[in-house]
Amino acid sequence: MKTNVSASRCFRKTVLFTLFALLVNSLSFAQLDKIYVNSQVNQISGICLLCSVQNPEKALDHYEGDYASLTIPIGVLANIEQTLIFPELASHFRKVTIGIGTANTPVKQLPLGKISIETFNGSASNNDARIVDTTILKADSDPKTGRIEFNPSKRFDRIKITLHSGLLHLGDELRIYYAQHSPIPFTTCGTPPLGPLLYYPFDGDLKDKIRGLDLISTIPASFSNSPTCGQNLTANHLDSLYIENNLPLAPERSLTISFLGRTDSLISIRSISEQGRSALFTPEEDSINSSQLNHYVIAYANGGHHHFSAEVYRNGKMINDGGLAMMLPPYSLLMTVAKGSVDELLVYDRILSAEERNQLTTSYNIPLDIPSFAIEAQKVRSDHEIFSISPNPTTGQITLDGNILLQDASITLRNTFGREVYQSKIRSKTFNLPATLSGGVYILTLQTKDKKVYTRKIILTR
């Protein structure tokens, strides 16, 4: 690793890409979990006798036990609307779940056309209004409660729920318990961890698919077919490609960058600030095969006072010794690659674990550059943890592993409020979580026959 290298030396290298400036002010690792609405507005229209919205605030925040009530005792072409507002603009790669219920009617027996939903970006409709039907409505074990689940096709920060009376209806009531969104897969290429800040697939453009923070180049960008994922960003000439974005990274955040790259020269990473100060290091001092596609992970761990320890991994193997980089606000991170290509650029506001890094590398069909004895050592360390769950995150099926005795053991699942939502004896190492559980974070507790207790966090993605 080199530090304090002059700018002139940096630009003596053949520069193909200068990739991108990073963010973000108000994000956290909690993005991987549920995000609930925190405000609302409501209104009543049409001929509606004694219609009301009762306890509208009870549809807000993370407690799912109380509810707001939209009631139409007598209505003629009447509508009651409640617009639920999230604390920030969300990516369209999120699954929305709305907990609903009725006083007497099973939710699956609600007349078609009774409830509709629509998403908005601020005051602008996303033009996706739809009637709630059996394709997006799921009943709970209690038939009078259920969930509306759907994936918005555009970015959104609010959802309008409308209860319609039709020509004439008597005694209608809709209960809204909560509304939240949680991450869903955002690409079919590889299996990257959920919840990134930014994602650039470079499939013929410089667009960010997560937050709309598209890159801007000072020269025309070139693309070519990728052997792994559609197209990639590439060039075979000496021109420099500068990509600019001037959004700040919140001071307390750590950062992980992941990308596929092919180059016949060094990859360098530079952090700069508007004051003109910079720190530069070049992690690749060894000779590499310019025709080989590699997977890189750059982890910036926040050490405070604008100092970040920087670790760079190539195909799972660390290729620098974790030196320091100075970044002063507003943060920009510039990455340069000489004569090659870059693809599948991902940015997270957290440090990926070793398991996540290795899984991501192999998911692109790139072999890990880790000796077999090191992999075995990792397995031994994992066994010393006694008890593990995979996959995690999971869509519903999990496998229990480790060196503990599972015979006659039992498991309990609790939500983030400590409420028990599932309990069962273990009959197999691999089993499915109940379909009635919505996506989110749960705490799994395993108790063995000899009363030893182990707990693990599970992220359920549905």
Task: Report on the architecture of this protein.
This protein is mainly β and 462 residues long. The protein has three helices and 34 strands. It has helices at 7-12, 354-363, 372-384, and strands at residues 17-19, 35-36, 39-49, 52-54, 68-90, 94-101, 115-121, 124-125, 130-131, 137-139, 145-150, 156-164, 169-183, 198-200, 216-217, 223-225, 231-234, 241-244, 255-263, 267-272, 278-281, 294-302, 307-314, 317-318, 323-326, 332-337, 340-348, 387-390, 397-402, 410-414, 420-425, 430-432, 440-447, 453-460. Strands 2, 3, 4, 5, 6, 7, 8, 9, 10, 11, 12 and 13 form a twelve-stranded antiparallel beta sheet that branches. The longest helix is centred in the last third of the chain and has 13 residues, at 372-384.
**Could you tell me how far the N terminus lies from the C terminus, measured between alpha carbons in angstroms?**
43 Å
Residues in β-strands, percent: 35-45%
Q: What class, by secondary structure content?
A: mainly beta
Q: Major sheet: size, sense and barrel closure?
A: 12 strands, antiparallel
Total E-strand runs: 34
Helical proportion, percent range: under 10%
Low-confidence runs = 1-31, 237-244, 271-287, 375-385
Mean pLDDT: 76
General shape: globular
Radius of gyration: 26 Å
Tally of helical runs: 3
Domain Secretion system C-terminal sorting: 389-459
Organism: Chryseobacterium rhizosphaerae
Signal peptide: 1-30
Keywords: Signal
